[in-house]
Amino acid sequence: MKQKWNRLLLSNRLVLLVLVAAATSAALLRAGTAGGAAAAGAGGDDWKKPGFCGRMDCPRYTAWQKSPDFQIREYDEASWVATNVSSTHYELAVKAAVPRLLEYFYGLNVEGLRMKETVPLLIYYRTDVHPHAGMRNFSVAMYLPYNYQGQPPEPNSTDVWIYRSPKSPLAVRMFQHRAREARVLDEAAALVDALEHAGHTDYESNVLMVASYNHPMKHHPHRRRYRHSEVWMRGDFKPEGRDGAGAVPADTAGAAATAGAAHV
Ligand SMILES: *[C@@H]1O[C@H](CO)[C@@H](O)[C@H](O)[C@H]1NC(C)=O
Ligand SMILES: *[C@@H]1O[C@H](CO)[C@@H](O)[C@H](O)[C@H]1NC(C)=O
Ligand SMILES: *[C@@H]1O[C@H](CO)[C@@H](O)[C@H](O)[C@H]1NC(C)=O
């Protein structure tokens, strides 16, 4: 009797193991194909979105340098809809800004256009102002859909403006977590360490951009609870020389999926 149970247990475990192995390899395969997205020349027609954009439009870039701790990317010029918020708290600033930006997307623009949502949500602020100093200024922006990058409709609200970001290199650190301020500051510190370690000294650490790809609307085909956030820092970065790694395809490490709860 006991032997029979053991055999039964064992075979159940085997079935479970096989199932887990199958699920894992399927997930890896999916991640592999989604992550295989490579950009041969950002801005070209052969641009493939990185996996962490899911099904949504997101800004184009060329990765100049990739390491596990950071990347140097050159972003193309891009159009964003933006709003400025003063708040004592980063999280409150984002919560106040998002509805204004969504109203623009949902038709509060002079053409009455309804646009599909995009990633990332971008939060721009100074980190050299002490978090307990009282009111701080935040600019919060959403990337505009590819169809409206060239000629974005003007916002109706005077609180909302169109921002055109220049073609420029950025240092980027990715993390699989929500973009709350405490975490953001840890990641920014880690990015500074990584840059210093790699010999990049010409970066601007008092202005930080946080890119949240954690869109609440789960538009990603693969996983539902995947999180992807990034901290971006400006600086005087150069492409790696031909003798180095050279320009490499856009992110493949992001692998599959986006979505989750809110952006912060
Ligand atoms: C919003 O803030 C940014 C950054 O501080 C500033 O450059 C811009 O002029 C502000 N825009 C408006 C409409 O206040
Ligand atoms: C936005 O502005 C345009 C042009 O001024 C106007 O026709 C339209 O009704 C406005 N939309 C809303 C929702 O107020
Ligand atoms: C926030 O912006 C306002 C004007 O836009 C400026 O007067 C003020 O000094 C800024 N506050 C901080 C903490 O930077």
UniProtKB/TrEMBL annotation:
Signal peptide per UniProt: 1-26
Family as reported in the entry's similarity comment: Belongs to the HEBP family.
Keywords, alphabetical: Signal
Any one Pfam family match given in the protein's UniProt record, by short name: SOUL
The protein's name in its UniProt record: Heme-binding 2
The keyword Cell division belongs to this UniProt entry's keyword annotation: no
Keyword Transmembrane part of the UniProt annotation: no
